[in-house]
Design goal:
By secondary structure, this protein is of the alpha+beta class. Helix content is 18%, strand content 46%. It starts with 5 loop residues before the first strand and ends with a strand.
Length: 94
């Protein structure tokens, strides 16, 4: 548990897509997409989160929530960018 979050799934897969990290805190389900690069030569990893990727994230999240047995009052989509050893987080990307 980091920052009060309980990690409930890593690399969760279904026919609709994959969720990299799913965490829970205070009734909020945080879905985090992780993009990593060894360097920035091919652009910022956040640029890889395209509208098509967002649609797959939403569909996979709907399937994940349907499999839960606890009430969810809010769903938040976050993103993590890793370039080398540098981590950058963005909350509420969608």
């Amino acid at each position: 548990m980091r920052e009060g979050y309980e990690i409930v799934a890593r690399n969760w897969r279904c026919p609709r897509g994959e969720l990299d990290i799913v965490a829970w805190r205070d009734g909020v389900l945080a879905v985090c997409e992780v993009k990593a690069r060894s360097n920035a030569n091919f652009g910022d990893p956040f640029e890889a989160i395209t509208p098509r990727k967002v649609l797959r994230l939403r569909r996979a999240t709907a399937a994940f929530v349907a499999s839960l047995h606890r009430p969810t009052k809010e769903i938040r989509f976050d993103a993590a960018s890793v370039i080398g050893a540098r981590l950058t987080m963005r909350q509420g990307i969608i």
